[in-house]
């Protein structure tokens, strides 16, 4: 193996200029992602705005329905992963090896842990919209198709998938949303100091 065969290294053992450029670009991108983490509402508003712009573009161009259908399927898969628990209770039913979701009022509280966390859901959904938007600039992705059939297929797929997910939620008694759930708190510190 000769000197400089590893990825991103030049002949003299230093990282190449291209590698340093993309490495720095990745660091800047990750920095912006880290800064956006606490702003959940703003992130989702931007994603919905991008989605709206994409839909307007598809409507005005009257094409790229296959790309839109693929984007819808991708978002549906992300949503199902977002609603699903990290550890599937149906797999844990037979074994007592690990934690499970509480099924009775007097059981220990265990928070719902998602298979796909909210931030990754948002990030993947936004990337999907941007890739679909990029595909609309290439005529090769504009496959002629009768779009009402795709809409019908998507609605059927959505209904069947959500029905299965809701049955799963009812069977194993979990709710993937925190709105309306009881909040557990520790002892409150009243802030009094002891005088000796």
UniProtKB/TrEMBL annotation:
Principal localisation: membrane
Key words of the record: Membrane, Transmembrane, Transmembrane helix
Keyword check for Membrane: yes
Pfam families xref list: Rer1
A cellular component term, taken from the record's GO annotations: endoplasmic reticulum
InterPro entries listed in its UniProt record: Rer1 (IPR004932)
Function recorded in the entry: Involved in the retrieval of endoplasmic reticulum membrane proteins from the early Golgi compartment.
Entry's family note: Belongs to the RER1 family.
Name this protein carries in UniProt: Protein RER1
Native species: Rhipidura dahli
Gene that this sequence comes from: Rer1
